Structure formats: C-alpha cells, structure tokens
C-alpha cells in the first residue's frame, strides 16, 4: 500500500495519481471528490480501477467508466435540528463557507437550503473561497454578515484550514457546527455526523475488484440517514449563552470517549 496526501491541492493529486498509474498500481483508492476526479482522470488511459471514498455528490464522477466507490450524503435535516437545539431558537442566521474547488458544494448548499425551509426565519449566508489561501479573508467576510453560527459542509478545502476559521469565530463568539465527528474533536461545537469508519470499510470492501471483478461488477454505495450526534463539552463551555440541549437523542460528548 502506497499512501500519499495532496494537502488539498488538485495539481498534486493529479501528479500523485499519474505516478501510481505509471508504477502499475492494481487499484487507486481516492478519498474525497477532488482526489477521486484526479485519480480517475489519470487512470482512465489504462482503464485502471479507482475506488472513491467519501465523494458527496456521485454525479461529479459519473462520467468515468473505471470508477466505483462510496458516497457520503450529509443529513442536513438532522444537522439543523442539532443547530436549532444548541442555539435555542429556530430563526437562526447561518453562515456557510464553500469552495470553488469542491464540486459537491452546490448540491450540499441546495440540500441545506431545502432543509432550512422547515424553520421560519432561518436564513443561509454564503461566502465562496477561490482556494485555501483566501479562507481567512472569507471567514472575516462571513462574520461581517452577523451570522449566529457557521455550519460546515463536507468540503476538504475549507476543513483544511479549520483551525484558522475557529480562531476567528471563537474570538467573535460565533460557534461552528462541523460536518462530521473529527471536526468536533478539533474544536467545532457539535455535529450530526456520518460514521466515516463505516464509509471507509465499505470502500475497502469495494476494492474486491482486486479479486478478479471489474469495476462494473462492483456497485457504488451511498451512506444515507445514518448520523450520530456529537458535541464538544470544552467548546460548549466557551459559549456561556448556550446550554446543552435535551431534545437530541443519543447526543455524546467527544471529550468523554
């Protein structure tokens, strides 16, 4: 197994994938949409199989015939229930940072806005990041819109500078809700999180194409409606106006695990 990390850079992902193809790899497992697209592009010339892991919008990779994998679809209905319970109100003004490098963001925003229709007065404010170097400025811009909180998408570019974002939001007294448990462990307040260990295991099983199957014989999988609520008690303590909600079944403290 050869493991590489592109550090959220598409050009690096493509270079790494080309090296894998040229070294006659048997299969490439690509985590997240940008890496999956670059891996599939590099592997298509030799019809090398690619298994994607945690690609949020599978339509973004549907044009590649050498591809299968596992999608992670955020449950924004569960996420917004969590947000409103922690914020203690339903007319929440939510800020969202999105990236032009993350092709699934448009679908996620559409799902988030649809889920927000269930709450009278809830609004979604967005700022678009061109690349990882502009995140600091865009964080300032979203805070200038006087949002009540920030909700993260499943966006690797944004999460790549999560600590920069949290430094600014904590100073402004604005909580951030993560899109999965690791972000809560890293300093976000809470999340209705997909179990990414399960996502990874499913993708690993799909690499069964190594045992003589073709990509077309390995059905893509989608993780849906399998969320688990987590919060960070140390982060909650930083926001004295917020209290631990009692209306979220199974809510766990990541600091107690």
Overall residue-averaged pLDDT value = 92
Q: What is the N-to-C order of secondary-structure elements (H for helix, E for strand)? A: HEHEEHEHEHEHHEHEHEEHE
Count of DSSP H/I helices: 10
- Major sheet attributes: 4 strands, parallel
Describe this protein's structure.
The chain has 257 residues and is an alpha/beta fold. 36% of the residues lie in helices and 19% in strands. It contains ten helices and eleven strands. It has a four-stranded parallel beta sheet, sandwiched between helices. Strand 4, helix 4 and strand 5 form a beta-alpha-beta unit. Helix 1 packs parallel to helix 2 and helix 5 packs parallel to helix 7.
Keywords:
single chain; 257 residues; 4-stranded parallel beta sheet; 10 helices
């Amino acid at each position: 197994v050869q493991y590489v990390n592109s550090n959220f850079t598409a050009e690096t992902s493509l270079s790494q994938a080309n090296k894998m193809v040229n070294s006659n790899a048997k299969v490439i497992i690509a985590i997240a949409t940008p890496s999956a697209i670059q891996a599939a592009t590099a592997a298509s010339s030799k019809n090398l199989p690619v298994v994607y892991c945690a690609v949020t919008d599978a339509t973004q990779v549907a044009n590649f015939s050498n591809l299968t994998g596992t999608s992670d679809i955020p449950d924004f209905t569960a996420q917004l229930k969590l947000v409103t319970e922690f914020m203690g109100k339903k007319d929440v003004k939510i800020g969202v940072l999105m990236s032009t490098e993350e092709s699934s963001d448009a679908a996620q925003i559409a799902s988030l806005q649809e889920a927000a229709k269930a709450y009278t007065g809830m609004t979604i404010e967005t700022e678009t990041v061109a690349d990882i170097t502009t995140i600091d400025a865009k964080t300032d811009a979203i805070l200038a819109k006087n949002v009540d909180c920030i909700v993260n998408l499943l966006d690797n570019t944004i999460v790549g500078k999560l600590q920069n974002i949290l430094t600014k939001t904590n100073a402004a007294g604005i909580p951030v809700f993560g899109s999965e448990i690791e972000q809560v462990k890293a300093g976000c307040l809470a999340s209705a999180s997909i179990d990414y260990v399960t996502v990874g295991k499913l993708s690993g099983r799909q690499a069964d194409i190594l045992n003589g199957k073709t990509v077309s014989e390995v059905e893509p999988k989608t993780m849906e409606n399998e969320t688990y609520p987590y919060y960070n008690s140390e982060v909650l303590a930083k926001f004295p106006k917020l209290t631990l909600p009692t209306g979220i079944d199974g809510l766990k403290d990541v600091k107690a695990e």
